[in-house]
Design goal:
The protein is mainly α. The chain has a domain at about 120-165 and about 220-315. It is about 60% helix and about 0% strand. The chain contains twelve helices and two strands. It has helices spanning about 5-15, 30-50, 50-65, 70-75, 80-115, 125-135, 140-150, 165-185, 200-215, 225-260, 290-315, 330-335, and strands at about 155, 275. Strands 1-2 form a two-stranded parallel ribbon. Helix 10 (about 225-260) crosses helix 11 (about 290-315). About 15% of the residues are buried.
Length: about 325
């Protein structure tokens, strides 16, 4: 496996957490580099924040070759100490969380690569492929418009009982994901919004984020309330859903334009989200009418805040003067409404 010289030096000076070798199982090289980097930086973090004993103990656990799991304490008697078990579990939790971020990054990379090489043919499993298949079946513009009019996608959010992560932890995982993406930027990329040594900066920020994750309590000190669950659900609207839905509309619009050149389509809001959080009466006595009312108000507040921010940004974009270009009648009419 080919890793950068900086990562090689890092692994030589500071031994990794588990000394993972993803190349030995045939993983793609970009993913291998991320896994090795995460493993090394986490090992460094554990040694600086705890001790080398945590790293050594984790490796000993991995080396136990016994079909009887009940004899694990015989091989690793240190696991009889609850504090030691907690530290080991936290180390593995952070490792798996970081590796999940690396895997998501790899999925995006592969899809972008497929998109870049899809000359003349839509990317498999894409919206464009679906539209082209509809056209190949013989459907005309009128039939497609009728399909759009009745198409409805309604994902439903629930308060998953195993999702107890704090928003502070989710923020740090998002930061980890961003800095992993920065690691993949080629040195010669014409970036105007960052330093020349982007790789060094991203590695330093990855290290800092891992330290912060280790020092951050994964679970709340107090029991989670229904309104906490509501805010957790809205977190994904604020950080993902509200940004991604317009991309899906744009993908569909472009696909229709390519498949049916010259045809005009009206695309309705075919994606509508629903949520059980704060309104589900299935056995939770804490979900009262008052809680549901506050949930609806919070949903309204988040939606308005998002759109007000978008309108505010439009103020800086729409600087055209009517003395230079005329406004369309549709725009003037919408302003009067």
């Amino acid at each position: 496996m080919d890793v950068s010289q900086g990562q090689q030096d890092l692994c030589q000076v500071n031994r990794c957490f588990l000394e993972l070798d993803p190349g030995s199982v045939g993983l793609p090289e970009p993913l291998c580099r991320d896994i090795v980097l995460i493993d090394c930086l986490l090992g460094e973090t554990l040694r600086s924040q705890e001790s080398a004993d945590v790293v050594d103990l984790a490796r000993r656990i991995g080396q136990v070759n016994d079909d009887d799991p009940t004899r694990l304490f015989e091989h690793v008697p240190e696991l009889k100490d609850a504090g030691t078990v907690t530290r080991i579990l936290r180390a593995y939790t952070i490792l798996f969380q970081a590796l999940n971020m690396a895997e998501q990054k790899e999925i995006v990379r592969v899809n972008r690569q497929r998109q870049a090489h899809s000359t003349g043919r839509p990317r498999p499993e894409s919206i464009r492929e679906a539209v082209f298949r509809i056209k190949a079946s013989g459907a005309g513009p009128e039939e497609v418009q009728a399909l759009l009019n009745r198409m409805q996608i309604c994902p439903t959010l629930t308060a998953h009982p195993t999702e107890a992560r704090r928003r502070a932890v989710m923020d740090k995982l998002l930061s980890l994901s961003r800095w992993l993406a920065e690691q993949s930027m080629p040195p010669e990329a014409p970036r105007l919004d960052g330093p020349l040594n982007t790789a060094e900066l991203s590695e330093r920020e990855l290290r800092r984020t891992l330290v912060e994750l280790w020092q951050t309590d994964e679970i709340r000190a107090s029991p989670i309330t229904v309104m906490d669950e509501v805010r957790n659900a809205l977190y994904f609207f604020d950080h993902t859903i509200m940004e991604v839905v317009p991309w899906l509309h744009d993908d569909l619009r472009k696909a229709l334009r390519l498949a049916y050149p010259g045809a005009a389509f009206e695309i309705p809001p075919f994606i509508q989200f629903r949520s059980w959080v704060g309104g589900d009466r299935d056995g939770n006595p804490n979900v009262t009418p008052e809680v549901t009312w506050h949930t609806l108000l919070l949903h309204k507040e988040h939606a308005l805040r998002h759109y007000m921010a978008r309108v505010s940004s439009l103020r800086h974009e729409l600087t055209q003067s009517t003395r230079l270009v005329p406004a369309s009648p549709e725009l003037l009419e919408s302003l009067r409404r």
